[in-house]
Design brief:
The complex is a heterodimer of chains A (341) and B (164).
Chain A lengths: L4 E4 L3 H6 L3 E3 L5 H6 L7 E4 L8 E4 L2 E5 L4 H6 L1 H6 L1 H8 L4 H6 L2 H6 L50 H7 L3 E6 L2 E6 H4 L18 E7 L9 E6 L10 E10 L2 E10 L6 E2 L1 H7 L6 H11 L11 H19 L20
Parallel strand pairs in A: 1-3, 2-3
Antiparallel strand pairs in A: 4-5, 5-8, 6-7, 6-8, 9-10, 10-11, 11-12
Chain B lengths: L2 E7 L2 E7 L6 H8 L18 E4 L2 E4 L12 E3 L12 H8 L9 H14 L6 H7 L10 H22 L1
Parallel strand pairs in B: 1-5
Antiparallel strand pairs in B: 1-2, 3-4, 3-5
Helix pairs in contact in B: 2-5
The complex binds flavin-adenine dinucleotide (FAD), iron/sulfur cluster (SF4) and FE2/S2 (inorganic) cluster (2 copies).
One FE2/S2 (inorganic) cluster binds next to loops of chain B.
């Protein structure tokens, strides 16, 4: 690991002014520093900023950027009103990592593209203009939506997929003042030359994430994640779904896919098509078809399109069944049986 | 620039000078303090061998920058036994064959101590397995580990009842 200077920021203003790589839980940044992908000269420790709160505001929620993933997943308001967020968080990483990982760090975590992680490979995201070794390589965790020849990486977060479905907004403070960005478009898609612009400008800090009132969707929301083993693995594909059901008909729907693009993939066309429809497998199948519209393999990964379609149907069907009172023993697993939700 | 680090490790207050901020908590425990019970498996958050408690919460010491945890209370496997008596989780791992080579065991035990304190898995083997999924075991002693956590959960509940 390259040597660096370490400072601690006690205020958001100090963090903005410090001009260094921000260290929150460190579970992604330190990892990247160990393998030589990140090599900051200065590390600015923001883990003690007073931004760890989780508060209910007007039916919605405000999650501080420093709130730990485990604490968000355990929060009573999250479990009661945003259960797909709890399920997404609990399906990610391990209990130890979730105790350290913060909300802001989770949003900003880097892709798990193995060529990005290997400094010997060409990677436009790591080194603009160098090319993309993933093309023609192992593309199991690469994109099938919104990709370009410049970069075919996916964003690996589970949390962000649920947040996008819940219409979350990322609150940002920087040298130029405050701004906000919708979770569903916070992460830029790649352009022809590479990964596209950075989601944050130098000096910008995520302060918190806001979720509006889920209204009638609170208890019809699920997250489903397909992975190579049932626990402690990143998604191959995943889906967050929420429904507002009135007498068996869908008054409003939310659907977002994970593991398929450089951002959580919100499926607005599919959502609109569900409005007014009965909550049946046929409706969900039509919506899932729309959700993967335009998808194309970025390599030897065409199977992900079919998997995404099926996982969307599964998430919508489980959402229609209602969120179980207690989260399944195996969060977001397709193997969670009838007896445990 | 030398920076000082204060930690309370297994009940003892320590002050250390760090002349390189790159040290992880795992490196400090093993290289500076000789507390080699905490193991380095992957050094990348993927195996759980380095699990310790920071202010009572289980974390991977390999991805914890030491300086970031200045002022924290750390519990390692060395701090678990009560004098000459093993901690109930340690005893259960022995009774239930919760290991073979033993390399993952300190991490497994620290993780199990935290899992039981979190009180979310109860006596449901599926929830215990899920709750222990951050700790890999190359010897695949998983069946024994689950039994050990179940037994330790019961033993600790009994202890609590008696104390009440
Ligand atoms: C073995 C392993 C398995 C994992 N499995 C999963 C999984 O299945 N699903 C999943 O979703 N994730 C998974 N993760 C990723 C994990 O969720 C992230 O590492 C974690 O959320 C990052 O949070 P952190 O606080 O530790 O971030 P850090 O490592 O501290 O920071 C990560 C990045 O975010 C930036 N940053 C942090 N906070 C802010 C802020 N407030 N404002 C602006 N920038 C900020 C940092 O500068 C850095 O670039 C896994 C990680 C590991 C190591
Ligand atoms: S897919 Fe993107 S992140 Fe991966 S090697 Fe290509 S440019 Fe880099
Ligand atoms: S050594 Fe820390 S998780 Fe493997
Ligand atoms: S006992 Fe050998 S690795 Fe677990």
């Amino acid at each position: 690991m390259k040597p660096f200077a370490y400072t601690r920021a006690e205020t958001v203003e100090a963090a903005i002014a410090a001009e260094g790589a921000l260290l929150a839980g460190g579970t992604n940044l330190l990892d990247l520093m160990k393998i030589g992908v990140a090599a900051p000269d200065r590390l600015v420790d923001i883990s003690r900023l007073p931004l760890a709160g989780i508060e209910e505001v007007a039916g919605g929620l405000r999650i501080g950027a420093m709130a730990r993933n485990a604490d968000i997943a355990r929060h009573p308001a999250v479990l009661a009103r945003f259960p797909a967020l709890a399920e997404a968080l609990l399906s990610g990483a391990s209990p130890q990592l979730r105790n350290a990982a913060t909300a802001g760090g989770n949003v900003m975590q880097a892709t798990r593209c193995s060529y990005f992680q290997d400094p010997a490979s060409s990677c436009n995201r790591r080194e603009p203009g160098s090319g993309c070794s993933a093309i023609g390589g192992q593309t199991r965790n690469h994109a099938v939506l919104g990709w370009t020849e410049g970069c075919i990486a996916t964003h690996p977060s589970d949390m962000c997929v649920a947040l996008a479905a819940y219409d979350a907004v990322v609150m940002i403070e920087g040298p130029g003042g405050r701004r906000e960005a919708a979770m569903e478009s916070f992460h830029p898609l790649p352009d022809a030359a590479g990964a596209g612009p950075a989601p944050l400008s130098p000096g910008e800090v995520i302060t918190d994430i806001r979720l509006p009132d889920p209204g009638g969707m609170a208890r019809n929301a699920r997250y489903v994640k397909l992975r190579e083993r049932t626990s402690f693995a990143f998604a191959i594909v995943s889906a967050a779904a929420a429904l507002d059901l009135r007498d068996g008909r869908i008054a409003a729907a939310r659907l977002a896919l994970g593991g398929v693009a450089a951002r959580p993939w919100r499926c607005r066309v599919a959502e609109q098509a569900l409005v007014g429809q009965p909550a049946t497998t046929e409706s969900f199948a039509r919506a899932a078809e729309l959700a993967v519209q335009g998808a194309r393999p970025s390599g030897d990964n065409a199977a992900k399109i079919e998997l995404a379609r099926r996982i969307a149907i599964r998430a919508l069907s489980l959402a229609a069944d209602g969120t179980p009172d207690r989260l399944a023993a195996l969060p977001a697993s397709v193997f969670a049986g009838e007896n445990n939700g | 620039m030398t920076q000082t680090l204060q930690l309370k490790i297994n009940g003892s207050d320590l002050r250390l000078d760090l002349d390189d901020p790159r040290a992880t908590l795992l490196d400090v425990l093993r290289e500076r303090l000789g507390l080699t019970g905490t193991k380095k498996g992957c050094d990348r958050g993927q195996c759980g061998a380095c699990t310790v408690l920071i202010d009572g919460r289980r974390v991977n010491a390999c991805l914890a920058l030491a300086l970031s945890h200045d002022g924290a209370q750390i519990t390692t496997i060395e701090g678990l036994a009560r004098g000459e008596d093993l901690h109930p989780v340690q005893a259960a791992f022995i009774a239930d064959d919760g290991f073979q080579c033993g390399f993952c065991t300190p991490g497994q035990i620290m993780s199990a101590v935290a899992l039981i304190a979190e009180a979310e898995a109860g006596l449901d083997p599926e929830r215990i397995r899920e709750g222990m999924s951050g700790n890999l075991c190359r010897c695949a002693a998983y069946a024994g580990i689950t039994e050990a956590v179940l037994d330790a959960t019961r033993a600790l509940a009994l202890e609590e009842e008696r104390a009440a």
